[in-house]
Automatic annotation (TrEMBL):
Self-association and partners: Monomer.
Name of the protein in its database record: phosphoglucomutase (alpha-D-glucose-1,6-bisphosphate-dependent)
The species this protein was found in: Canna indica
PANTHER family: PHOSPHOGLUCOMUTASE (ALPHA-D-GLUCOSE-1,6-BISPHOSPHATE-DEPENDENT), PHOSPHOHEXOSE MUTASE
UniProt keyword terms in alphabetical order: Carbohydrate metabolism, Glucose metabolism, Isomerase, Magnesium, Metal-binding, Phosphoprotein
UniProt-listed SUPFAM superfamilies: Phosphoglucomutase, C-terminal domain, Phosphoglucomutase, first 3 domains
GO cellular component terms, A-Z: chloroplast stroma
Residues of the Alpha-D-phosphohexomutase alpha/beta/alpha domain: 98-242, 272-377, 382-486
Length: 619
């Protein structure tokens, strides 16, 4: 065993890391030590395949063997040990479900986090997806069903891509690998009509774990009807568990062999990015370089979003110097690629101010979420991003309904309804929930054009309800370009002006209260039942407190107004946690709201209220 950051790391990981076509941009000296590399110099050019793909002569590469084990090894003197996790170890497939995604640990080396997303598991999941799809979609006579696969910058991407390809090919499907890609591009590939790129594909898989740490990975699945939901994922996992049980070394070898002959690679991101460029040009009256004169910096957090600077902004005429962390690096050495993360937002704000840029744009790892920063360093994030997008969408579709998640502010409702003349439908947390709700509203005759979360997920009706952080930013670019063309404004002032009048609370916090699932107070019940009991008790207390008023319409948890602010206590979508959001005009008022919650939950002994205790004491 070698050592990474003081923790044991197994040779499997080192071997994979060294064999793949990866570059270490990492500044992590202990990793380099673990890899047996004494100087960072030889690692130059050891880079994840973004540039490789874009440098393709033709957009289609010849059929390739995809077994990375055959590739040249780079400077690495770590022994290629065998995995300590047997490929066929017993695996609880259902533990891999995370709402409508699959998430697991794909890289060994972090204490207490054993690998449960092995290559064999990934192969079984791919075969499960294939079986699920084949039941819903008949291959036509001329061709087999085809699936696109893309991945973000994670270090386990290549091995999982190979494993998934084996599973799909073994199930009789064709595979087209896109390499480094964004989640929205993968959905888009189910809609694109271009046979020379093997599009539209019948299904698509994105390998990503969004902003989670480097050792995790996961999958998102798409068909042309959108992202698969919870029930579909459960169904796929049931099938996968059965398939996995029947795996043998011989069957796995066969699928590896078959993959060598049937896997294609295409540079699909070229189509996706040129569509984004075309959308901005069209909105600007078919001007070739509508962003000429704008200086826009991008922060991709070393995820998959680096393309936005060179492949979208620059062709549109923008200057992008000062953009940062565009190179993929699955160790995310600079900051967590997550617009909800304070450090990440600080980093892009600093870049905007230092470069005197007009706008800053930041993406999460797989580019389904984004946020922006204006030239004064003011963030368009959370409620402000929703307000900005609502202003843009409501100009185009007066009166439309904006569907948001549950933790949006009261000030946002007032802004959307009083200032913009729209309707705010505050629904549940979860991007799939808000998108599905907007689609449902349209189907019953209530027009809605935007579904958006405070997390930075957002989808527009005009863009097939595709949850796309890059497309959200395209809408901002359109606004910049049209304001410039009409001479009304240059720089990001046009955007800042659009959110003028949005009331923002002085205090806004989210505290996450954990439920100890092993606590005797659960009396053998589930954490969900326990959480529901906490919420019921809180609701009863609120009903008898004259300072507090329950929100008349609410779809999730207990939302209450009082002391000039509000709080929402709800169950997390995924974790044994009750997130508590509080917004108030002063610290004192926020504490009063916090104390009201604390009084109601204090006798639930399995609930860890330490974050709330600290909040009410400190403020
Ligand atoms: O319920 P929580 O634990 O706060 O998590 C809720 C969040 O989970 C994931 O990150 C989803 O991608 C988001 O759409 C959702 O809002």
């Amino acid at each position: 065993m070698a050592v990474i950051s003081g923790k044991p790391i197994q040779n499997t990981f080192l071997a994979q890391y060294c064999q793949g076509n990866w570059q270490s941009n990492t500044k992590n000296p202990s990793l380099l030590f673990a890899l047996g590399i004494r100087s960072t110099q030889p690692l130059q050019g050891w880079k994840l395949a973004w540039t490789d793909m874009s440098a393709m002569q033709s957009h289609i590469l010849p059929t390739t063997g995809i077994n990375l084990r055959k590739r040249t090894s780079f400077m690495c003197n770590a022994a290629q040990g065998t995995s300590t996790v047997s490929s066929f170890e017993k695996v609880d497939f259902f533990k891999l479900q995370n709402g409508s995604d699959i998430r697991g640990v794909a890289v060994a080396g972090v204490e207490g986090e054993p690998v449960n997303l092995t290559e064999a598991v990934a192969e079984a999941i791919a075969a499960g997806f294939a079986a699920w799809l084949l039941e819903r979609k008949e291959p036509n006579e001329s061709r087999r069903l085809r699936i696109s696969i893309g991945h973000d910058s994670r270090i386990s991407a290549q091995k999982l891509q190979d494993a998934i390809s084996h599973g799909l090919v073994g199930a009789g499907l064709d595979v087209i690998q896109y390499g480094l890609a964004s989640t929205p591009a993968m959905f888009n590939s189910t809609l694109t009509e271009d046979e020379s790129y093997f599009c539209p594909v019948d299904g698509s898989i994105m390998i990503t774990a969004s902003h989670l740490p480097y050792n995790r990975n996961g999958f998102k699945f798409f068909t042309n009807a959108g992202g698969l939901g919870k029930a579909d994922i459960k169904n796929i996992l049931e099938r996968s568990a059965n398939i996995y049980e029947k795996f043998s070394d011989a069957s796995m070898k066969e699928s590896i062999q078959a993959s060598k002959e049937t896997v294609n690679k295409v540079d699909y991101m070229a189509i996706y990015t040129s569509d984004l460029v075309a959308a901005v040009r069209k909105a600007a009256g078919n001007k070739e370089k509508p962003l000429e004169g704008f200086h826009i910096v991008v922060d991709a957090g070393n995820g998959a979003g680096g393309f936005f600077a060179g492949k979208v902004l620059e062709p549109l005429g923008a200057i992008t110097t000062g953009s940062q962390f565009l190179d993929p690096d699955g160790f995310f050495p600079n900051h967590i690629p997550n617009p909800e993360d304070k450090v990440a937002m600080k980093a892009i704000t600093k870049a905007v101010l230092e470069n005197k840029a007009d706008l800053g744009i930041i993406f999460d790892t797989d580019v389904d979420r984004s946020a922006a920063v204006d030239s004064n360093g003011q963030e368009f994030n959370r409620n402000r991003l929703i307000a900005l997008m609502s202003a843009i969408v409501l100009e185009e579709h007066p009166g439309t309904t904006i569907v948001t998640d549950s933790v949006t502010s009261d000030g946002l409702t007032t802004f959307i309804e009083k200032k913009l003349g729209g309707k705010h439908h505050r629904f549940k947390r979860g991007y799939k929930n808000v998108i599905d709700e907007a689609i449902r509203l349209n189907s019953i005759g209530e027009e809605s054009h935007l579904a958006i979360e405070t997390s930075g997920h957002g989808a527009l009706k005009e863009n097939h309800w595709l949850d796309d952080g890059a497309y959200l930013m395209v809408k901002l670019l359109n606004k910049l370009a049209s304001a410039k063309a009409s001479g009304s404004s240059s720089g990001s002032k046009v955007l800042t002006d659009l959110v003028e009048g949005l009331e923002e609370p002085a205090v806004a916090v989210e505290l996450r209260l954990k439920i100890d699932q092993n606590h005797s107070d659960l009396k053998g019940g589930s954490f969900r039942d326990y959480g529901e009991a906490v919420l019921k008790h809180l609701e009863n207390r609120v009903n008898s407190d004259t300072n507090l008023k329950k929100a008349p319409i609410n779809y999730e948890g207990v939302r209450v107004s009082g002391y000039g602010g509000w709080f929402l206590l709800r169950l997390s979508l995924h974790d044994p946690v009750l997130p508590l959001n509080i917004e108030a005009p002063t610290n004192e008022d926020a504490v009063k709201l916090g104390l009201a919650v604390l009084a109601a939950v204090k006798e639930f002994f399995a609930l860890d209220t330490s974050a709330l205790d600290k909040f009410v004491q400190q403020s």
